[in-house]
Amino acid sequence: MRKRIIIGGIVVAVLFFAWFADNRHGGALETGGTYPESGAPMVGTDVYFMTFGLTNRSGGPLTVVTIDSDVITDGLEFVEARIYTWDDFIGGVPATWTPGDGGLWTPETVASVPAIGYRISGHRGLDGKVMFAHFRVTTGRRPLTASGLRVTYRHGFREHMQTVPGVYSLTKPGSAG
What is residue 109's DSSP assignment? Predict the structure, then answer.
């Protein structure tokens, strides 16, 4: 009987440690940067904002499962987040971009992959990559603001959700932030 109690205690301790070790990775993403603003495009057009670079502070790899805007005003829709290679922007990476801006740094003409499904190695960042949040304007009302990106990621056998800080603002048409 005593042997069963000892074995049972060891099993419980191992399961608790495994749960605790995986559970503490719920805040694995770290960011840094500034908040961009853009002159507002017309209704029905798109706007891209460079987001903070994501850094995986955990020891193991994580995979992005979903990304959505955390708080967003009516008239602005979150479309998707995409990952670009920094060096593919010949004229430099823009902080914001709207169709018609022109230039060699147009996100629509640069190769990219969806952020959903992207894997970030442990203790690494995007390493030469940059992420853009893509929004669509659905109203002529201004200002429009989206704050924070809600990122769900898989680390080990669990999924965690974390809000990545950021404020993405559309000001009056013709003005720039």
Answer: G
Q: Residue 155's closest CA among 77, 87, 56, 88?
A: 56
> SS3 of 108, please?
helix
Q: Name the nearest CA neighbour of 49 among 171, 161, 174, 154.
A: 171
68-92 pLDDT, tens digit each: 999 999 999 999 999 999 998 887 8
Query: Within its chain, how far is the Cα of 139 from the centroid?
Result: 24
Task: Give the CATH fold of the 2-171 domain.
Answer: Immunoglobulin-like (2.60.40)
Element (H, E) at 22: helix 2-23
Phi then psi dihedrals of residue 175, to 5 deg = -100, 155
pTM: 0.76
Q: Determine the 3-state secondary structure of 144 from DSSP.
A: strand
